[in-house]
Amino acid sequence: MKKILVINGPNLNMLGKRNHEHYGKTTLDQVGSKLRAIARKMDCSLLFFQSNHEGSLIDFIQGNSKEADAILINPGALTHYGYSLRDALEDANLPVVTVHLSDIKNREPFRKIDAFEEVSIENIYGLREKSYTKGLDILIKYINKLA
Ligand code: DQA
User: Which HAMAP family does UniProt cross-reference here (predicted)?
Assistant: First the structure.
């Protein structure tokens, strides 16, 4: 069975309480349930991790990527400047899909910079929690084609 790491960066533990206009009202637990339902149907296992600390995210990737087939990640604000996290993803040498609830290309100028674009097979913006479900679907289809 294929295994996917589902990683959320800083402040995403607060989903549901954050700006509803940008991020919607869905909590991270609810996003997780939706992803679990997709994974069950597509015969995949998910390992979830959220941290507000870049180093902890890197430790998780280094510690778990050998036994994983792919990574789904929302790096939060690290998207715009988190080059150590970006390098950890590159070093993991796994297919990565990056997801964002909001449309980072149409917000403040600092959000237009995406340090993760080059290390991702796909970047999904602006579909609120559907960015995650779409991203997982794309990733599962991608790794199943590789098999
Ligand atoms: C985000 C966008 C980032 O700019 C922001 O810092 C977040 C969430 C998103 O999912 O839209 O924390 O990654």
Answer: AroQ (MF_00169)
